[in-house]
Amino acid sequence: MVKEKILVIDDEIGPREAMRMILKERYNVATASGAEEALDIFSKERPDLVMLDIKMPGRDGISVLKDIKQLDPDTEVILITAYASVETAREAIRLGAFDYLIKPFDKDDVINVVERGLQKRQNLERSRLEHEGLLRTKEYLEKEIETARQNLMLYYEGTIKALIRTIDAKDHYTFDHSEHVAKLSLAIADAVGFSKIMKNKLEHAATIHDIGKIGVNEQILRKNGFLTDDEFAEIKKHPEIGARIVNEVPFLEDTVEVVLYHHERFDGTGYPEGLKGDKIPLPARIVTIADAIDAMMRDRPYRKALSHSELIDELKKGSGTQFDPEIVRLIIDNKIKLF
């Protein structure tokens, strides 16, 4: 078993040797007669405990104590003092010393205080190792959580793509449209000042905003002409159908409001709930206008794609009725690039 190291510092040979004789059977004991010699030994050997006389010629024990604590704050220091300097010893304890012994000292007192000092040192070292172990465990768990999060996001992205492919199987127009709506929504979100996290959520929501069309009759979805009232009533069910679908998937819960409210109108005449103005969540208002813009930019069976100027005119007409006027203003002021 490796013996613990103790450094005894005292300018008087008698107390210094007496201390060495008491401790040498139990510990590896080094001695020093002054500050410079002591600090040189300390720097090379890094003892586990130091026994330090307060009254020494040249540099006193208090200044040496400060240097030791600066070199290694965990080293325990026991002061050796005469009765007259007990107050100084108490002050040194406030500076970080462990305890003090009064000359002439008793052998049992020396052994007792040294054992307590070393026990404190061991406890500190054990706590440090436990703390380091906890930090390593924390880092490991953080890595595991991050790996799990990345895997979840891969499944998330896979689910999103699978849902889009499902929509595309029923309506080829919708797939390309959903991608464009997502890009337009991100452009608007940048101008509005969305954070990166909010933009990520918006992109996913915009991508699957039409997921409810899975529950709509394919003949209605693929109809080239205008819809009848009954067919339009059927189409109007898709936001609620979509909201029910995504509401069942925990990691799609942030998309529910966009899926449910992307056909609400700013003047309150939209569906499914007839929400008005700021009652419509902002992400849904963004997707509403992105949805309409992409539709206007495409050829449809009943009309050609609108030019840029025609599209701007339509946005102006719908400002405050179909669309959020603040978002329209940003587009008109070229704060949002559509092309």
CATH level-1 class of the largest domain:
Mainly Alpha
Query: Main sheet: which strands, in order across?
Result: 2-1-3-4-5
- The H-and-E topology, N to C, reads as EHEHEHEHEHHHHHHHHHH
Main sheet properties: 5 strands, parallel
By DSSP, the count of extended strands is 5
Full CATH superfamily name of the largest domain? Hypothetical protein af1432
**CATH topology-level fold name of the largest domain:** Hypothetical protein af1432
> What is the 3D form?
rod-shaped
Distance between the termini: 78 Å
Number of H/I helices: 14
Which structural category do the helix and sheet elements fall into?
Answer: alpha/beta
Instruction: Please tell me the overall pLDDT.
Output: 87
Strand content: 5-15%
**What is the CATH architecture descriptor of the largest domain?**
Orthogonal Bundle
Helix content: 55-70%
Question: How would you portray this structure in words?
Answer:
The mean pLDDT is 87. This protein has two domains: 5-128, Response regulator (Rossmann fold), CATH 3.40.50.2300; 171-332, Hypothetical protein af1432 (Orthogonal Bundle). With 339 residues, the chain is α/β, with parallel strands linked by helices. 30% of the residues are buried. The protein contains 14 helices and five strands. Strands 2-1-3-4-5 form a five-stranded parallel beta sheet, sandwiched between helices. Helix 6 packs antiparallel against helix 7 (196-207) and helix 6 packs across helix 12. Helix 1 (13-23) links the parallel strand 1 and strand 2 (28-32).
